[in-house]
Amino acid sequence: MTTRLSGAATYQHGSEKRVIGNVLRGSIGNLIEWYDWYAYAAFTTYFAKSFFPTSDTTAAFLGTAAVFAVGFLMRPLGGWMLGRFADRFGRRRALVLSVTLMAGGSLLIAVTPSYHTIGIAAPILLLTARLIQGLSVGGEYSTSATYLSEVATPGKRGFYSSFQYVTLYGGQLLALGLQLLLQALLTEQQLTAWGWRIAFGVGTLAALTVMWLRRGMDESESYQREAGETTGERGTLRALAKYPKEIALVVGLTLGGTVGFYTFATYSQKFLENTAHIPRRQVTILLFCAILVAAVLQPVFGRLSDRIGRRPLLLFFGIGGTLLTVPLMTVLGSTRNPVGAFFLVLAGLVVVAGYTSINAIVKAELFPTKIRALGVGLPYALTVAIFGGTAELIAQALKSAGHEPAFFWYVAGCVLVSLIVYGTMRETSKTSELEERREDKH
Question: Is the CB of residue 345 less than 8 Å from the CB of residue 293?
């Protein structure tokens, strides 16, 4: 039985063209959400004094950093709220809601007057906007991971779901690219006075466009079938509590992956500037190029997982991350050659791709449809908030204490924990309900 939902066409698995269209609309929304998320970090140096007292630059930066951290901690709440919403009311509706929240948060940042104009209300409105964006990003991951996995063609789920991280990297690249463009077109004074608002205005318009596109997405067949068969506990914590092993697996899967990702994809920028002492513009360019290559690798690794399974790629990441993190980071900290630094960062991102390219599909394959979005989103968001969100803080604290190499061992240790999980878990592509239900139907 297939249920037609209001505003969405009935989904037909047999049409590869419709699959591609749905994946594109789901993925581009993820790209814009992550652009909006990264734009905050990219333009902090320009808007910090607009929201906090201008007499103390350090205090202004600390204020914006604190707001960023609070937004990060909202992600578990977003994973719970929108994951529950997606399991109860549909993936499409949750994805529309998610990008609408992001548009609202970006618009609020773009139009909020400065501290000089409205006083303490300025940082309060900034905090409110960031809380909204945190909810949005937390819910976007769980819902898009679930949606892309469910609408993908059987046998190509790894390939299609990998576009979640293609667009995550893409959002980071867009934010960096716009920053470079505005730096070329505007003076430093113009960027500080008003130019930074352009970034959030662009994000608002893009998010509103995606909201309109997502309204025409097909609901996943898995959800439509489940909606017609079950009610009651869909998307509840009580239902999720019946899957303690799967919850633990999500935490174990994510722990090393999120620490490795934030180390090589984001912290490496500050590491190259402060430890390797490579000029900032060169660091921005080499990191941009490395992330671009990493984005291209995601579907390659995802398609490979469809052929050989998910565990081999996870083991590739686990073994590589455990053995190579310390030597890679040690050499990276002593290099002064931007080209050499590019290849070292890229090597780290290639290893991390063993996790990032398939993490969405692996987690989606662990849970049944009625609890999939919440099961993917909540334990993932909690793990990312606790370990991914603190990675840079731990790195900076150890550097300040004169024990920077200890951070390299910390990252390797986190990956080792995940490696143990990868070595003992089942091959999810062979036991997933996504495929079992497909076989039942025929």
Answer: no
